[in-house]
Structures
1.
Amino acid sequence: MLRVSGGIAALLMMISGESVASGTVDVSLRPILRPGSGLGGEVVSVEPVSAIRSTLRPRLRPDGFENAQSPLVTEVKTYPRNARFEAWVESFKPRAKRAGISQGVINSAFRGIRYNTDVIERDGNQAEFSKTIWEYLANATSAKRVKQGKQMLRKHKRLLDQIERKYGVEKEVVVAVWGLESFYGDLRGDYNVIEAMATLAYDGRRRDFFQKQLIAALKILQRGDTTASKMKGSWAGAMGHTQFIPTSYELFAVDFTGDGKRDIWGKNPADALASTAAYLSRSGWRKGMPWGVEVRLPAGFNRGLASRKVTKMPSDWAKLGIKDVNGRAIRDYGSASILIPKSGRGLALMIFAKNFRAIERYNAADAYVIGVGHLSDRLKGGAPLKGNFKAGERPLTEEETKELQKHLKRVGYPLEKIDGKIGPNTKKMIKSYQSRNGLTADGYASEALLKHIKRR
Ligand SMILES: [Ca+2]
């Protein structure tokens, strides 16, 4: 299972919050994986990806299983002054100056910023629960996200075609990242990035990391890409349409519109989408190669071969009986591994090293990579993943989850929202229902569970 950190803020994940070391999650990535948008999400932790333990973009979108659709924060809050924080800011200024930031930029960037208690609350709030890849995918490739993604492909066709030609990354992949990171620009975050980074650099759990982000953010202002007041992002500093953290921005952002500014924050998504394509391209993306293909494993398959360390050409995998879910041989696109995600329940994939890794650099959680990859396939008109389930084990779709929630309510559980999403609350109620009815209390929303509750 994916460990999801929820509550006001946190996703490490693959399912939203963007990684953990011991056992399941890479602890070092945790803070980074936190909810990028600050819009009220949860962070999901996923088991570490064997090959890559770090990522430049630590967040696991979509952030909010519970609150994915929460509105942008519009209210401007004023936080009380905090003398210690202000003293820290003063002590940080000479450091910024030594890093090459001008006094003028330093003065204007820090003017009026306060110790942001909301950021600290989000950083500290992590109610953990488990989510399977299927539950993550139900949200990542929800009907609404797929539909809106197709609309975006039409609306921005010219731009996306240009970006695809220039960077060699399929437009559906770029749009899938956009869809998971900010719901196509709807959830870009409304925190003052300098204030949020300074708060976390002063008082967070990863001070060194956020001090680097703060310096990088100041460099962005110094270069004139945007102004302090327009540099908005998530509480964890993920900025713009595709949620770049400042250090990733410094490495990969591009000016696609040609106005001299790399503007990933404004309404026009051109620079942000081109920056994402540039990021994937420079991370080794190969156009025309899949990120992964769902497979059926033959009976008696040696699961020890399902390892990132074991790579073969698809034709060699085919000799071991591995074909796609329709029984067809998979073309020799390149070297591939078999991935059976821990929380996947019936999911098996052939993953192509180059492209899987390129998405991993955006976020190392398996769930995230599969979410982006599968959403891109759906945007191309591909079919939902099928899985290979025993009777009754199939996970519920979004619509079926709504139905389950209605039944939970009917039998007396105080469910507030019928939203088709499995969040910590719904999961708790499922577990309670299961244990009261003598079922395995694993919180897993399966076809069999829906059947069971319908009979009640
Ligand atoms: Ca520009």
2.
Amino acid sequence: MSRAFNFCAGPATLPEAVLKQAQEEMLDWRGTGMSVMEMSHRSDEFVEIAETAEKDLRELAGVSDDYAVLFMQGGASSQFSTIPLNLLGDKTSADYVNTGIWSKKAIAEAKRYADVNVVASAEDNGFTSIPEQSSWRTNPDAAYLHYTPNETIGGLEYDFVPESGDVPLVADLSSTILSRPLDVSKFGLIYAGAQKNIGPSGLVVVFVRKDLLGKARKETPTMMNYQVIADNDSMYNTPATYSWYLAGLVFKWLKAQGGVEAMAEINSRKATKLYDFIDGNDFYANPIDPRFRSWMNVPFTLADDGLNGEFLKGADARGLLNLKGHRSVGGMRASIYNAMPEAGVDALIQYMTEFARERG
Ligand SMILES: Cc1ncc(COP(=O)(O)O)c(C=O)c1O
């Protein structure tokens, strides 16, 4: 069976080379006579796998020793509460920017613990553009400023890193991590669910500046306390070992492609050609302000919603999978993360061209 082009927003397509390597190593990891899935997380072998993955991730993302790199569980959503529990310290208020569904979820959860100040909202423009930072009403006494660099569902992505002064900047990088270079030193904390650009679900990667550790509220569950996780090299309990191993294979693959700079070039090319095609064809539309269009998630609508089912059926038949938009917004969405080859985008454009010609 040949592999399809899978445009799912997450869990998302993984590099074929990584899956093949995992297949080869499945029954016997390097002469140990067992799968990584069956190894003790305390074994020398697994500790080496874990340390190598962290080292490669630090190198790829440019994470200095000023930061702890944590491999946690519970997905990005669990960070929505872990962050306020750990970072509020003796403060009561936190700043949030509302740019779509994922920001809203982060805000709703933070409200359980903090006075949330929504410094700016894209709700007024239907989440199609990012409010200029000059209009944000930030609080210099906030414990942190949280934002969502890429809204996976809306397809809205910042083209700038907000300035937050002395207030630690916190970012949900779930759907854009490692897709282009980023100056990590501007951030207090970065988190990302793994299942888009890193590996299988179940794992969430956190970069936290070390001076922000040790401030967790006393009611913070142990498993959510960054200090505890950092002190125990993310092995306070049994970590998601197989996801961690696969993430490590993805990091090696990324390095072999030329790292995030090379990925940025390819990702920019893939996104540009898809948006150019959509803009140049009357049958398709994307509502996002061109300045803030996501490189990773490209939502689009057909001129006639009544043709959605037929479009998806035809796409499936060609091995172009999971193009249905999120249930909250409808339409279509093509997620084109690092592991989506350019040939996948070309095949999608080819299909969209033919569909518009025949049914438009
Ligand atoms: C930007 C963003 N944040 C958070 C999440 C939630 O991630 P998880 O399902 O790992 O909790 C997602 C999932 O798609 C996401 O795209």
